Amino acid sequence: MAELSSQTLHIVARELNSELNDARTALEAFGEQQDNVALLRKCNEHLRSVHGALRIAEVYGAALLAEEMGQVARYLIDNFSERRHLAEGLDALMRAMVQLPTYLERVMSGGRDMALVLLPLLNDLRAVRGHALLSEGTLLLLNLSSDQQANPVAAPGEALTIAQWARKLRTRYQLGLLGWIKGERVDQNLEILSRSAEKLEQVATTQPVF
Questions:
Q1: Whose CA is closest to 37, among 70, 69, 76, 88?
Q2: Is residue 152 part of a domain?
Q3: pLDDT tens per residue, the chain (210 residues)?
Q4: Cα 53 to Cα 180: distance, rounded to the nearest angstrom
């Protein structure tokens, strides 16, 4: 995983753990109170937050798993009156709830973001909804895009290129975007987004591309 993406993941790690714990608590409560669909909706809301944070941190394998988990939760909610595939869905979601934090810990410890290792679980989740299964080839392409390394930053005293400025501003922009998505300090986070975009526009229009 690229260096700046790794930094972003560590910054949002506490938020991710909180959202994951809340999602799992809601799902476990629903397992004991299967007439209370509000618990399943609560679980789905937390999964949406997890997915958004992982997309911003560019942990694509984990983001894909969180997305599939959210899709299953949504499927169970939409088909709640019929209890369609409820047992299979709960089983797959609970296994994913255990696997996702383990996967994130491995990535944060320096491991590669390899969606391929999640393939069996991803396909179990997709099978609940009757969707086409993913292939190894599809996930290999995903791994290639998520394993790109960051280019070196210019040494002190050297002028930054446009690409280096973009990487420099990316983490700040991502954190502002995450805060805005979650509705936290909206005005401040919009200001962060605005200033980051203005700075990038400035360097892009005042520096040569090459």
A1: 76
A2: no
A3: 444 455 666 677 777 888 999 999 999 999 999 999 999 999 999 999 999 888 887 888 999 999 999 999 999 999 999 988 899 999 999 999 999 999 988 888 888 888 888 999 999 999 999 998 888 877 766 554 444 433 333 444 446 677 767 766 765 676 667 667 767 677 777 877 888 788 777 877 765 544
A4: 11
DSSP label at 118? G
CA distance 5 to 181: 18
d(CA 183, CA 16): 16
The letter for the amino acid at 89 is G
Let me know whether 22 and 68 are in one domain: yes
Identify whether residues 172 and 71 lie together within a single domain.
Answer: no
Same domain membership, residue 133 and residue 179: no
CATH code at position 55: 1.20.120
Range of the domain at 202: 162-206
Structure tokens at 206: 């005042």
CA atoms lying within 13 Å on the CB side of residue 31? 14
Among 99, 118, 146, give the residue marking a domain's end. Answer: 146
Q: What is the tally of structural domains in the chain?
A: 2
| Sole residue written with tokens 């973009």 | 166
* Alpha carbon distance 175, 23 (integer Å): 22
Q: Taking the model in full, what pTM does it have?
A: 0.67
In this structure, the number of other CB atoms found within 10 A of the CB of residue 141 comes to 12
Residues sharing a CB contact under 8 Å with residue 193, sequence separation 6 or more, in sequence order? 173, 176, 177, 180
